[in-house]
Amino acid sequence: MDLGGLIQSIDWDFLESTLTRVLAVLLCLTVHETCHGLAAYALGDPTARDRHRLSLNPFRHIDWLGLVMMLAVGFGWAKPVPVDPRYFKRPKQGMALTALAGPVSNLLLALLAVFLSREIYLHAPYSRGGALAFEFLLYTLAPLSIGLGLFNLLPIPPLDGSKVLGAFLPDRAYFGLMRYERYGMFLLLALSWFGVTGDLISGAILGVYRFLFELFF
Fold first, then answer.
1. 167 closest CA partner among 95, 114, 98, 215
2. pLDDT for the residue numbered 12
3. Cα gap 117→104, rounded to integer Å
4. DSSP string covering 130-143
C-alpha cells in the first residue's frame, strides 16, 4: 500500500475522538491531583510542593495503568499526591479538606467547560478547524470531569469520600475505616465489574450535566 492509500485508510474521526478523550482525561486527572496538593500546602503541608507535585504537568501525576483503565473502562486513577497529616493542626479535618479539593476542582472544571461551550455556541456557532476541535474537547471534558469528581466522593477507601466521611467519625472508627484502605481498590474493581458503580455514577453525571446546561443555556 502506498503512502496515499495508507493515509486514506486511517479512520480520522476515530483518531480525533481518541486523542480528544486522552486530552480530557489527562486534564481531569492533573487538575484533580494538583488541587489536592494545593489544598494540603494551604493547610501547612509542604510535602507535595517538595516532591514537585504542585504542577499542571500531567507527567508528574500520571499512573500509566490507571490512565489506560480510565480510557478503556472509565474507571482509573493517577499517582496519589503525598500528604503528611502531621503538618495539619487538625489532622482529620485537614485530610478531609485536602481530599475534598480534588472532586470540587473537577466539578468547577466541568462548570468552566460548559460555560465556554455556551460562549462558543453564542458567538461562534459555525466554528471550524481548531475552534471546532476545542468545542469537541469541552463537550468531552465536562461529563468526564463530573464523573471523576462524583466517583471520588464515594465513601470507600482509598477514594476521597472516605476521608471526608472520616472527619465526622470518632477517631477509633476513622482509623478502623482507613485500615481497610488497601482492600478498597479490589472492592471498587468488583463493583465496577458488576456495573454497580457505573449505573450509580452514570445517573448522577447526567443529573449534574443537565443542571449545568440549564444554568447556562
1. 95
2. 61
3. 20
4. HHHHHHHHHHHHHH
The cell for 178 is 482507613
Reduce the secondary structure of 58-73 to three states and give it as a string: HHHCCCHHHHHHHHHH
* Ordered mean pLDDT values, 10 residues apiece, the chain (217 residues): 57 80 94 98 97 95 88 80 96 96 97 91 69 85 94 90 91 80 73 67 88 81
Whether the CB-CB separation of 34 and 53 falls below 8 Å is answered with yes
From 203, 204, 78, select the one nearest 150 (Cα to Cα).
204
Q: Where are the alpha helices (DSSP H) in the chain?
A: 3-9, 12-42, 47-50, 64-73, 91-123, 129-152, 160-166, 171-179, 181-193, 196-216
pLDDT score of 183: 73
Q: Is the pTM of this model over 0.90?
A: no
121, 124, 129, 133 alpha-carbon torsion, rounded to 10°: -20
Cα 37 from Cα 35, distance rounded (Å)? 5
**From 33, 135, 181, 214, the catalytic residue:** 33
pLDDT, residue 68, reads 86
Furthest C-alpha separation in the chain: 69
Q: Which three cell numbers stand for residue 111?
A: 462548570
Known catalytic residue: 119?
no
